[in-house]
Amino acid sequence: MISITEKGSFKNTEKFLNSxxxxxxxxxxxxxxxxxxxxxxxxxxxxxxxxxxxxTYEIIQKxxxxxxxxxxxxxxxGVPIAVLIQYGHGTKNGGYVPGxxxxxxxxxxxxxxxxxxxxxxxxx
Length: 124
Fold this sequence. Notes:
Elements: H1 11-21, H2 24-30, H3 32-43, E1 55-62, E2 65-72, E3 75-76, E4 79-80, H4 81-87, E5 88-90, E6 96-98, H5 103-123
Antiparallel strand pairs: 1-2, 3-4, 5-6
Helix pairs in contact: 2-5, 3-5
């Protein structure tokens, strides 16, 4: 025979579940969109500033999770220029332009702060 005994309350669990219903995570997450856009724009190499000024973000909410997506909308001849800058590309003449890792260093502090802030929301 199995017997289960419970002592105490579910106050903290109920508080956490109610916070999910109030979308506290979304509110905490929303401030990072513009921060990421600003960080990426300032780190993007500039010739014409078209790539630097084309950063956007989107927050996607689906059942059970939230997702933050940063995108660059500057596309020339079907090619996302931000990707060419990041990873490098071949040229018409057979040359190669090496990539420059500017995205990861720019967005890393945003990820770190986001993780710290979201941890506070979840453990409150």
